Amino acid sequence: MKFCIRSTFSEFASKWARDPRFRAIEKMRERETLFSEFILEVRRQEESQTRGQIERVSMPNLIIFIYCILLL
């Protein structure tokens, strides 16, 4: 199973149910909470990276726009 931020806990649990690390956490609800927190953090990091990419792309376009206005 390839991990992505759209993975659900049930998919994750079915894949790793026999793993001793997964079973080390006794309560299923606690496992699900940890999974949800992890997914949320990954999403935040991806959004942050996306915002950084948008800013890097937008800034040169803004400079070109201003330059074109100054030429008019």
Compact overview of the structure:
The protein has helices at residues 9-16, 20-23, 28-71. By secondary structure, it is an all-alpha fold.
Give average pLDDT, whole number.
80
Global geometry: rod-shaped
Q: What is the helix content? A: over 70%
Give the tally of structural domains.
1
Decide which structural class fits the backbone. mainly alpha
Low-confidence stretches: none
| Count of individual beta strands | 0
Describe this structure in words.
78% of the residues lie in helices and 0% in strands. By secondary structure, it is mainly alpha-helical. The protein has one domain (9-71). The radius of gyration is 21 Å and the shape is rod-shaped. The relative contact order is 0.09. The mean pLDDT is 80.
Which properties best describe this structure?
mainly alpha
Task: Please describe the topology of this protein.
Elements: H1 9-16, H2 20-23, H3 28-71
